[in-house]
Amino acid sequence: MLTSGSIPIYLEHGQNLQLLKSLPPNTIDWSLLCPALMTPESSDFNVPTKSSRGALIANAATPPLWPKSWVTYIPLIGKSIEMAMNAGRYETTLEQNAEFIASDLETHESRWIGTTVGIIDGSK
Length: 124
Known about the structure:
It contains three helices and five strands.
């Protein structure tokens, strides 16, 4: 869930987002990573982990690289059709997400503070 007007997947995260936004300013630096389907690259999980795939492309508040289509303008079903057309492109791995989070934490000056973060596999 990125925003109220975006893809209606993982609606339970709406409560988490409301809670985070209700915190007083400067209480905590937060961001909400919004991956779609995540799968492990391997059943053998070692720490630290390293992804064999490319880096993720991220965007604040909306899914990155989301192509708009004329079908979105079909009354009642257009947005659902557009979502179905695009959803498969947003599969990432657990390892890619772990690397994205770790890399962001290492910067100490995250550009994602106070927002939802949509991601897509940049190697696809």
